[in-house]
Design brief:
The chain is globular. The strands form five sheets. The chain has an eight-stranded antiparallel β-sheet with strand order 3-2-4-1-10-9-11-15, covered by helices on one side. It has a seven-stranded antiparallel β-sheet with strand order 5-6-7-8-12-13-14, with helices on one face. By secondary structure, it is of the alpha/beta class. α7 runs antiparallel to α13 and α9 runs parallel beside α12. It binds 5-amino-5-deoxy-1-O-phosphono-D-mannitol. 5-amino-5-deoxy-1-O-phosphono-D-mannitol binds next to α9 and α15.
C-alpha cells in the first residue's frame, strides 16, 4: 500500500528519496512521485507506474537537501498522474504526502469550494494541503497549519509535509505508521522501517496523535498533552539483509529461505527435555495458562490460515476451545470479550488495519491480546506489548510464504506450552518438539527433490478455475494454496474442506478440471481419499500432495511427495509444493510474481 519517504539533511535528497521509494516498492503501489526543495523552488515529478518509470523522467540535476516522496496505492480516485502524490497547494507553498483515508473529505472539499478553492485531483489527500494553505495565509506557523487542519479530519493519516519557505518537514500520525530515522545531521522519515536501515538503525515510531517537527539534525514530537520525549528504538541488523542477491524473485528467495527462517523462529524457544515451549515475550504465568477459558485468534489472508492451524493445535494440545476470526469481521460484530481468555493477533507486517482495529476493540473491552508478528516494532507489536516475534526476516514478496510457516511454528510452540500446563503429556510434548526441530531439515530435503511441479503447472496454467481440498490441519493449507495461486496467477480458486466438497463445489467438476488434494498421512487421510475418488469419478485431474513412500501417490494424475513428519506438523511441509506451484504457474503466465496486480504487501486501510 501507500509508502512515504522523507529526507532533510546535508546530502542531495533526490537519490536518497528514490532509493527510499525503491525499498518501499514491495508494499504494492500504482504511481509514484517526489518533491525536492532546491532552495528557490520546489520541483515535483510524478508518474503512473513504477519507481523505475519515475527515475526515467527525472531531470539529470535536481539539487536540494530536503524532500518528500510517495508510492500511491489508489483508494480515492483513479490511477492518474494528477492523483499521484505529492499534492501541492494552489500557491506552491506546501507539498504533502499522505497515507490513510480521510473519511470526511467530501465535506471538507465542499467547504473549500465554498471559499473558491477547487481541488485539482480526485483524492481525499489533496484537501489537506489546500486547508493548510489557508492556515498559512492566515499567518499560522507550519506546525500550527497542520495542527489546525487535523482538528477537522475524520479518518486515518500518516503525513509528511514540506513547507517551501520553512526549513523543516512536519509529520503527523493517526492510524497510519510513520517512523523517524535519526542520522548524523540528517533526519529521515518513512512509513516502513525497511528503507531506513540503509541509513540508520536509530528510529522513533510515532504514536497516534503525534506531530513531529523535523529539522536537519534534530526533531521534536508533540502530542495533545504537549512535548514528548522521543523513545529511540534500535532496529535489528537483520532488517537490512533484504536484497535479492542471485535469486530471480523475492518470492523464490523467500520460499527457499524457509528452513533457515524456521530455525530462527524455533531457536531458544523450546525445551526438548520438558517437551514444552518457552515463549518469554508472552509473559505467560502458569495460572493464566491453566485458567484461560478459551483462545481467539485474529488475522487476514495467509495470517488467518496460519491462525486456523494454530487454533486446531491449541484445541488438540490445550484441550480448550479455540476459534479463528477474520479480523475485518471482528470489530463490527460487537464481540463479547472475556478478560481471562487469550487473544492472538497474527500478522506478518504488524500494520494490517483490519487486525489493528480488532486489537483495539479487544483492548477497549478489557481483553489481553498477544501479537504473533514478524515486523519488530510494528503497530500491532507495540499495541499488544506482549507476544512472539516469528523472526522470518524481511518478507518482500507480496505473496506471503516464509511468514506462513513461521506463524504456524510460533503457534505450535504456544500450543505446546499451553498443552503442557494442562493435558499434554511430557512424552507427547517431547515427541512433538523433536519433530519440530527436525522440520527445517525436512524442508531442505523437500527442496532437494521438489517433485513434478512443472507437470502440475501444465494442468493449472490454462484452467478456468481450480479446486483445493484438504481435511483437518490440511484444510487451511488448501486455503493457503488457493490464495497463493489466485493472487499470483489470477486464476479463480476455491478451497474447501474435503468432506464439504460433495455439498456444492462438486457441481463445478467436469472432464479435466484440476483439483489439488492435500493428503498427508494423518488420521483423516482415508476420508480425504474418498473425496479424491469422487472428483476422479467426474473426470477431474488430481494433483496430489502426499507423504513420501505413501502408496496413495499412485492415485494422483500428478503426485508430489513431501517428507513424512509428525501428523500435527504436516502444514509446515505440505504448503511448500503449493507455494512452488503458484510461483511457477504465475511465471508461465508472465505475471509479476513479486508484485501481483492490485495487491499490496501491507494493507493499511480497512
Ligand atoms: O501483514 P499481514 O500478515 O497482516 O497481512 C495479511 C494479509 O494481507 C496477507 O497475508 C495477504 O493475504 C498476502 N498477500 C497473502 O499472500
Amino acid at each position: 500500500m501507500c509508502g512515504i519517504f522523507g529526507y532533510i539533511g546535508h546530502q542531495q535528497a533526490l537519490p536518497i528519496l528514490v532509493e527510499g521509494l525503491r525499498r518501499l516498492e514491495y508494499r504494492g503501489y500504482d504511481s509514484t512521485g517526489v518533491a525536492v526543495d532546491d532552495g528557490s523552488q520546489v520541483q515535483t515529478h510524478k508518474t503512473v507506474g513504477k519507481v523505475a518509470d519515475l527515475k526515467a523522467i527525472l531531470p539529470k540535476s535536481v539539487s536540494g537537501t530536503r524532500g518528500i516522496a510517495h508510492t500511491r496505492w489508489a483508494t480515492h480516485g483513479g490511477v492518474t498522474q494528477v492523483n499521484t502524490h505529492p499534492h501541492v497547494s494552489a500557491d506552491g507553498a506546501i507539498h504533502l504526502v499522505h497515507n490513510g483515508i480521510i473519511e470526511n473529505y467530501q465535506h471538507l472539499r465542499r467547504r473549500l469550494s465554498a471559499r473558491g478553492i477547487e481541488c485539482v485531483s480526485e483524492t481525499d489527500s489533496e484537501v489537506l494541503v489546500q486547508m493548510m494553505a489557508l492556515e498559512l495565509d492566515g499567518g499560522a506557523t507550519p506546525l500550527e497549519c497542520v495542527q489546525n487542519t487535523l482538528q477537522h479530519l475524520r479518518g486515518t493519516w500518516g503525513l509528511c509535509i514540506l513547507f517551501r519557505d520553512h526549513d523543516v518537514l512536519i509529520c503527523a500520525r493517526n492510524g497510519s505508521p510513520l517512523i523517524i530515522g535519526q542520522g548524523e545531521n540528517e533526519t529521515f522519515v518513512s512509513s516502513d522501517p525497511h528503507p531506513l536501515t540503509a541509513h540508520t538503525q536509530r528510529v522513533v515510531y510515532l504514536e497516534d496523535g503525534d506531530l513531529a517537527v523535523i529539522e536537519r539534525g534534530s526533531f521534536s514530537i508533540t502530542t495533545k498533552g504537549g512535548k514528548v520525549e522521543p523513545n529511540i528504538t534500535v532496529l535489528e541488523e537483520a532488517w537490512g539483509e533484504a536484497d535479492l542477491g542471485d535469486a530471480p524473485h523475492y518470492m523464490y528467495k523467500e520460499i527457499y529461505e524457509q528452513p533457515d527462517a524456521l530455525r530462527q523462529c524455533i531457536a531458544g524457544r523450546v525445551d526438548r527435555e520438558m517437551g514444552t515451549g518457552r515463549l518469554g515475550g508472552m509473559g505467560l504465568d502458569h495460572a493464566a495458562l491453566v485458567q484461560a477459558p478459551h483462545v481467539r485468534l485474529l488475522g487476514c489472508g495467509t495470517a488467518a490460515y496460519a491462525a486456523e492451524i494454530g487454533q486446531m493445535l491449541i484445541e488438540k494440545m490445550g484441550r480448550i476451545p479455540a476459534v479463528t476470526h477474520i479480523s475485518s469481521e471482528f470489530r463490527n460484530n460487537d464481540p463479547v470479550i472475556n478478560p481471562k481468555a487469550f487473544y492472538l493477533a497474527v500478522s506478518q507486517s504488524g500494520e494490517t488495519a483490519d487486525t489493528i482495529s480488532a486489537v483495539k476493540e479487544i483492548k477497549l473491552k478489557g481483553g489481553q491480546v498477544f501479537g504473533v508478528v514478524n515486523v519488530v516494532g510494528s503497530t500491532i507489536a507495540r499495541l499488544c506489548g506482549r507476544g512472539v516475534y516469528i523472526h522470518s526476516g524481511p518478507e518482500q514478496s507480496v505473496a506471503s510464504t516464509k511468514a506462513f510457516t513461521n506463524m504456524v511454528a510460533a503457534l505450535t510452540i504456544f500450543a505446546t506450552q499451553l498443552g503442557r500446563t494442562r493435558h499434554l503429556s511430557k512424552a507427547d510434548g517431547r515427541e512433538l518438539i523433536q519433530h519440530l526441530q527436525q522440520a527445517p531439515h525436512l524442508m531442505e530435503a523437500y527442496f532437494e527433490d521438489i517433485g513434478p511441479i512443472h507437470e502440475a503447472v501444465e494442468l493449472l496454467h490454462d484452467a478456468g478455475s481450480v479446486l483445493f481440498l484438504g481435511r483437518g490441519l490440511s484444510a487451511p493449507v488448501a486455503k493457503e494454496g488457493a490464495l497463493k495461486l489466485m493472487e499470483l496467477a489470477y486464476i479463480p480458486c476455491l478451497a474447501y474442506p474435503a468432506g464439504e466438497m460433495k455439498h456444492g463445489p462438486i457441481a463445478l467438476l467436469e472432464e479435466g478440471s484440476p483439483v489439488v488434494v492435500v493428503a498427508p498421512n494423518d488420521h483423516l487421510k482415508e476420508k480425504t481419499m474418498s473425496a479424491l475418488h469422487e472428483c476422479k469419478a467426474r473426470g477431474a485431474k488430481i494433483i496430489l500432495i502426499h507423504e513420501k513412500g505413501d502408496p496413495i501417490g499412485a492415485e494422483g494424475d500428478v503426485s508430489i511427495a513431501v517428507p513424512a513428519i509428525h501428523p500435527w506438523l504436516t502444514p509446515l511441509l505440505t504448503v511448500l509444493p503449493l507455494q512452488l506451484m503458484a510461483y511457477e504457474t504465475a511465471l508461465k503466465l508472465g505475471r509479476d510474481v513479486d508484485r501481483p496486480r492490485n495487491l499490496a504487501k501491507s494493507v493499511t486501510v480497512e
